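We modelled the chain as a single entity of 169 amino acids. Its sequence is:
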Amino acid sequence: MPRVLRLAFDPVARAEELWRERWDAGDSMAAATSIMRVQQLLIARYDEALKRHELTFARYEALVLLTFSRTGRLPLSKIGERLMVHPTSVTNIVQRLEQAGLVERTPNPDDGRGTLAGITARGRRVVEAATADLVDLDFGLEALDGAERVQLFELLRKVRVGAGDFADA
């Protein structure tokens, strides 16, 4: 587990106190800030677990996305859309994965200007090993039991639907 500076107080709770002294919506600010802080804590843990595979979480996500695709290949634009990252970031992620021999880039036959990223056999082996490490870590959610993880997913799903992330069936 990465070294995390342990604060002597809850910075989100303190921010909420200060926020309520000046503005409304302290509970919304505290919830949103908690989500962002948890995301930062989880990413740090994931990156630490993935370091031995020479991956960052962003690169791992790209490999998983390619693993789940029907052909093991996707246009870079689709990777960016699904991972919600800027095209420049996708290019950087794919270049790093290509340099490591985990993906290969080829021209997109359906788009003369586009590029496909395809996962290699080595990439498939690395994603399996990295996933096993994240599963062993319980994706950093070991403080929650199974029912709490389901509840958390459902609550955050409502936020994603409300933000227009996807069409709720």
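As a brief sanity check on the tokenised model: DSSP finds seven helices and three strands in the chain. The radius of gyration is 19 Å.
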